[in-house]
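Supplementary Methods, section 5.1.

A reviewer requested that the exact input to the structure prediction be made available. We therefore reproduce it here, unchanged from the version used in the analyses.
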Amino acid sequence: MEVFWLLILSHFIADFPLQPGWLVRNKTKLWGLVLHVSIHLAVMLILIGESRWVLAWPYLAAIAVTHFFIDAGKNLVWRWRPQWVAGPYLVDQFLHLLTIALVATWITRSLPASQLPAGSPWVVYAIGFLLATYVWYITEFVIFSYNESYHNEVVRTIWSRMLTRAIFLSVFIIFLSWVTPRLDISYAGMLFLPASVSLFLPYSADCYWKRALITDLAVCLACSFLIVLAAGSL
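The structure derived from this sequence is encoded token-by-token as follows.
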């Protein structure tokens, strides 16, 4: 499971914060796609640590090559049907995560535990906070692209809503750490944001504030449960 979560974290880092707009636009070209996949491979090698010498080939190479062809297929779909936005994005992410799950299973069945990286709760927390903040921003940006007014609000409130979701997630983690033995309260305490003491809500001036608030709470609650469940496996 440790390898699985490290590979998931690598994917979220490389496919979201390390994929800026200019790279997304140029990923339809060969050099852009190769650069994007190379960033993915580099992040995996960095996060895997000393185990990279064992996992680099053929396991991480398999993920990188598969990522190339999945993204190339998505480019073809968008070229063929440019009006299809949300569907190809969701299928693309599903296929990437499925690939990681299959390769992680392959790794754990092929190699002894002594050759695998050690698990650490920080990986799970990092995944949860990335999911709740930047990954959800991009996901909401894509799936609501058909609604121009809400789409514009998502872009306009990017930083304030991401900060608020981080606060919500911190509060949920602390609450769950009190009611379940799966979480270490010391870790949860470190994740608590002092800004939550003077919590502000960036929704009042928006036309879609109810949708945004309910969505953000739901996303953060789901991510907090993911952290609780995953922490128990490390």
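The chain has a mean pLDDT of 86. These observations are discussed further in the main text.
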